From TrEMBL:
Keyword DNA-binding tagged: yes
Species of origin: Pedobacter cryoconitis
Pfam families: AAA_lid_14, HTH_8, Sigma54_activat
SUPFAM superfamilies: Homeodomain-like (SSF46689), P-loop containing nucleoside triphosphate hydrolases (SSF52540)
Family matches, as Gene3D superfamilies: 1.10.8.60, Homeodomain-like, P-loop containing nucleotide triphosphate hydrolases
Designated name of the protein: Regulatory Fis family protein
Length: 411
């Protein structure tokens, strides 16, 4: 089987050299009985690789047991792994087989291996060296034939240096190191993964397909992805379920990708040239200004409604079109934006407070409008008055641009 066959068989997406290399190492080490230490950030695919190695080994018909060493309390981990005799500790009413006995002839995947207590590490080392172990509460030596694949998202060698991990065990486990690259090291795979996941979720939820606009693809590719493929998969699912507009722009994506902090955002979009960097920043600011303006409109409306004692009929009469549009927009925002959901529920604030707040904000909005018309003028100038390209650059539709030009009297 070559690397591509393995990808097809195990549903591995991506074509970056680092990923291909990891698959190639897994392919070569699988048929041997060597221990493998898989390193990589959380969500990068370590468990997937442990399956690949087991399935492509001569043990594929044997058991595969995955143990999360970080999730088992220190007091019971030895008994879980190696079993115990009846009466070996309070509560041990029956003898129990450990995973190493059950997995005889198969593979054990020790996830978060750096979390193993030192005592357990000593027992594990003995198994690795001789296949021998003792059940808890027994002095009878047992034998087992288990292949060990371990995984960690921390630097185990640091644990060795601080005396928390046995050096001999470290070298024994690390016979073949296998490093799974983080998503930010294989940016070229991000869009491929998103496309696959969103297609799968669209199938699953019977919803229309998701199309990413170029600015959204760029934002996706430049995000840092601390949760790697798992996080990307979650976000693809959220977008599939929640997003009403199936043409997803960078602005819409901001609702799903956590903000990496104000100054990070424009930098995250940096693609080399300073000039382009600047225009992209403008687009992002524009998205934010638009959002803020919407907020302000909303606040004004709420203030008006409160002032009129909750009676909305006069507002409806004066401006039916605007209200309809607002309903649609609000509807969409509420279902898409989790922060909005949280803010929806607080108790009614005193009316007075809302008023002073509102007054401050209205003044600020004037400068936002200025800023907006500045950006539009700049974009039009850059594209020599060609509205189509200016709109693209601004990240809005041509129709919206026409409306804004009219509204802001830019003709
Ligand atoms: N290259 C890949 N292609 C497709 N799906 C992947 C890939 N790598 C990881 N996944 C998926 O991402 C999720 C997290 O992977 P997992 O192996 O559990 O990560 P880890 O063990 O490193 O935390 C799983 O749903 C897995 O199927
Ligand atoms: Mg995992």
């Amino acid at each position: 089987m070559d690397v591509q066959d393995i990808k097809n068989r195990f549903g591995i997406i991506g074509g970056s050299p680092l990923l291909n290399r990891a698959i190639d190492i897994a392919r070569q080490v699988a048929p041997t009985d060597m221990s493998v230490l898989i390193t990589g950030e959380s969500g990068s695919g370590k468990e997937v690789f442990s399956h690949i190695i087991h399935q492509m080994s001569t043990r594929k018909h044997g058991a595969f047991i995955a143990v999360n060493c970080g999730a088992i309390p220190e007091g019971t981990i030895d008994s879980e792994l190696f079993g115990h005799e009846k009466g070996s500790f309070t509560g041990a009413h029956e003898a129990r087989k450990g995973y190493f006995e059950v997995a005889n002839g198969g593979t054990i995947f020790l996830d978060e291996v750096a979390e193993l207590p030192l005592g357990t590490q000593a027992r594990l080392l003995r198994i690795l060296e001789s296949g021998e172990y003792l059940r808890v509460g027994s002095s009878k030596v047992q034998k087992t034939d288990v292949r060990i694949i371990a995984a960690t998202n921390v630097d185990v060698y640091n644990r060795v240096k601080s005396g928390k991990f046995r050096e001999d065990l470290y070298y024994r486990l690390n016979t073949v190191p296998l490093r799974i690259p983080a998503l930010h090291e294989r940016k070229e795979d991000i869009f491929l993964l998103f496309r696959k996941f969103s297609a799968d979720f669209s199938d699953k939820y019977r919803s229309p397909g998701i199309h990413l606009e170029p600015d959204a693809i760029q934002m996706l590719s430049n995000y840092s992805w601390p949760g790697n493929v798992r996080q990307l998969k979650n976000i693809a699912e959220q977008i599939c379920v929640l997003e009403k507009d199936r043409n997803v722009t960078a602005g819409a994506l901001l609702n799903y990708i956590p903000n990496e902090g104000g100054s990070n955002l424009p930098m995250a979009l940096n693609n080399g040239s300073n000039k382009e960097d600047f225009s992209e920043r403008d687009i992002l600011y524009k998205v934010l200004f638009d959002m803020k303006k919407d907020m302000m409109d909303l606040k004004k409306l709420v203030a008006e409604i409160i002032q009129s004692g909750g009676n909305t009929s006069h507002i409806m009469e004066e401006n039916p079109h605007y209200i309809n549009q607002l309903y649609q927009e609000v509807d969409q925002t509420v279902s898409n934006d989790s922060t909005f959901m949280i803010k929806k529920s607080p108790q009614n604030a005193p009316v007075d407070y809302n008023y002073t707040h509102d007054a401050e904000e209205v003044e600020e909005s004037l400068s936002l409008i200025d800023k907006e018309s500045d950006l539009i003028k700049k974009a039009l100038k850059k594209h020599k008055g060609k509205r189509k390209f200016a709109a693209q650059e601004l990240g809005i539709s041509e129709r919206t641009l026409y409306r804004k030009i009219k509204e802001l009297n830019l003709n």
